[in-house]
Design a protein that fits this description.
It is globular and about 55 Å long. β7 (207-214) and β8 (221-229) form a beta hairpin. The longest helix has 15 residues, at 107-121. α4 packs parallel to α5 (142-155). The chain is built from 10 helices and 9 strands. The protein is α/β, with parallel strands linked by helices and 342 residues long.
Amino acid sequence: MFEKYLTGPVFPVLGNHDSNPEAIDAPHSLPGNLSQQMSWNYNHVASLWRLNGWIDDAAEAEAKTHYGGYSIKNHYGVRMITFNSDFWYKSNFLNYINTTNPDVSTSFAFVISELDAAEKAGERVWLFAHVLSGWDGSNPLANPSNLFYAIVERYSPHVIANVFWGHTHEDQVMIYYANNGTVQSRDTALSAGWIGPSVTPLTNLNSGFRLYEVDTGNFEIYEAYTYYADVDSFSSLNATGPTYKFEYSTRDAYGPAANWSSSAPLNATFWHAVTEAMEQDHSLVAKFNTYQGKSSVKSPNCTSEACAEAKVCYIRSGSVALGRKCPQGFASVQSAYTGKNF
C-alpha cells in the first residue's frame, strides 16, 4: 500500500503491536542482560524501516540504540522526533518494576536532548509516539505521563509545533497547557496533541485517515482533512475494495463555532476555543463524537450533559493526572458508554 499510494517519505513510529509478546518492551533499568532481552526487535524493525527506504542509515542506527526512537529532519525542514511509548503503556508489565523512575529507558532523556539541540538551532519540531499521554488517563502510567507533560510545556510553543499520537484508532485531540494545566485557557494553551484516526477499524469503528495542510515556514497546521470508509458496507463489496470518502474539514467543522480566523493556525489556542464553544453548544460535542468513530453507525450517542462535560475535559487533559479527574465512562466510542448521566 505504501509503495503504491504514497509518493513521499514514510516516517514510522513504534507501537504496542510492534513487539512480541505484544506491548512488552524491556526497560533499560532492568539489571544485567534483562535490559537487552528485546533488543532483537529494535534491530529488526529498524532494519526493515531502512530496507524499505523509510529512514536513512543514521536514523536506523539511532532507532536501534533508542528502542525504536529516532530524530530526523525531513525534506521540508521540520525535525521529527519519535520515541517508544511502550515504556509508559500500562499493558507493558515490565514498566511496573521501579515505578519511581519516570524514564526507565532514558527515552525522555533522548527526547530532551534532541529538543534542546533543536532549540539552539532554531528548529521547529513535531513529536511522534503511539500510546497517547492523556485523554481519560486510561492508557499510560501516571509518572512518565507527568514528565512528558513537563517536557512539552518547557519546549512549547517556540520549538514544538505539534504532537501526534495513535493507539486508540479513534479521531481525538488533546491540549497541553502551561503550569501543568492548572489554569486552562486560550492564553495558557501551548501545544495540541492530534490523535489520528486509523485505517484499521478495530471495534465498531470505520476505517479512516487524515491529510494535513502545513505551513512549511512555521510548521503549524492550517487545515486537516479526514476521510473514511464505511465498514458497515464492506459485506456488499465484490469487484472492488473499500472506497474512502471525504468526512470533514477540521476548520469548517469547528472554526465558525469557535469564531476562529480563517488565516489562523489550528493550534492549541484554536482547540481551546473549540472546547469553549462546546460548553455553550453541546451539538458541537455530538459532532465531535460522530467524528471520533469516523462516522460509524455503531458509535454511541453523546447527547447528555455528562457526556458533553466529559468530552471537553478529555480534550483538555494531556496527562494521566488531568484525565483521571474527568468524568469516566465516555472516553471511547467502541462500546456503549458506561458513565453516569446527570
